[in-house]
Predict the structure.
Amino acid sequence: MKVGTARRAVWNTVGIVFFVVTVFPVFWMISTAFKSDDQINSITPTWFPTHPTVQHFRDALARPYFWTDVKNSLIIVLVTVAIAMVLAFLSAIALSKYRFTGLKVFIVLVIGVQMLPGAGLIIPLYVVLARYHEVNALTGVILVYLTVALPFSLWTLRGFMIGIPKDLEEAAMVDGSTRLGAFVKILLPLVAPGLVATSVFVFITTWNEYIFARILLNDQAKQTITVWLSYFLGSSRQTDWGALMAASTLTAIPVVIFFLLVQRKIAFGLTAGAVRG
C-alpha cells in the first residue's frame, strides 16, 4: 500500500469516527423520543424502539406555553438575524473598503469582545436593561443577543469582503454602472455566501441560547423555547426522559428547517462567486 493511500485511509477513518461521535447524541435523542417507557428505563439499553410510540410527543405538546414560547423564540431569532446581518454587512463594507484612523484598534477590539465570557456579562447587562425597563421584555433579549452576534458577524463578513477583488467593482463602474449598481450587481452576489453562512450561525446561536433568556425573562408567557425545555428537568426519578427527548427533537426542528432552506443558496453563492472571480 502506498504512503499516500494509507494516509488517506487513516484520515477517512478519523473523519468517520468523528462523524459517528458527533451524530450519535442526535440519533439517541430521536430514538429515545419514540421508545416506550419500559425501554427507556431498562437497564439494558436498546438502540432502536421495538414498538415506536408518539405518546411522548403528545405529552410534550400538552405542556403549557409551548406554542407561545415557540412564537417568542421565532420573533427574537428572526429580528436578531435581520438586524445583525444589516448592521454587520454595512460595517464590514466600511472596514474592508475604507481606511481610517484606529481601524486596526477597532478590529482588535471586535476580536476582544468575542473573548469575553457570557456569564461575566450577565450582571452588567441586567443592570443596564433594568434601568431602561427592558427586563422581562423580548426587546431586551434581542438587544443582548445583538451584542453577542454582531462582533462575530462583522468579523466573518469582513473576511468575505476582503476576498472580493476591487477590480470587479471598478470594472463595472468603468462600463457605465453607478457605485450603487456595481454594489448590487457585483458585490452583493459575491458576498451572498457569507451572509447566508453568518445568518445560519446567528440563527443557531440565538435559538439555542439559554442563560440570558433564563435570567432576563421571568414570565413564562415571554420565555423562549429553550427555557421551556428546561422545565422538563427534575430529579433523576422525576424527569420524564421520553417527553424530554421528544421536546428536544421538536426544539431542533426549526434549526434543521432553516438550514435546509438556505443550504442551496450557500452552494449557489459559492459557485457564482467562483465563476465571476
Summary: Residues 77 and 207 are 6 Å apart (CA to CA). Residues 269-277 have pLDDT under 50 and may be disordered.
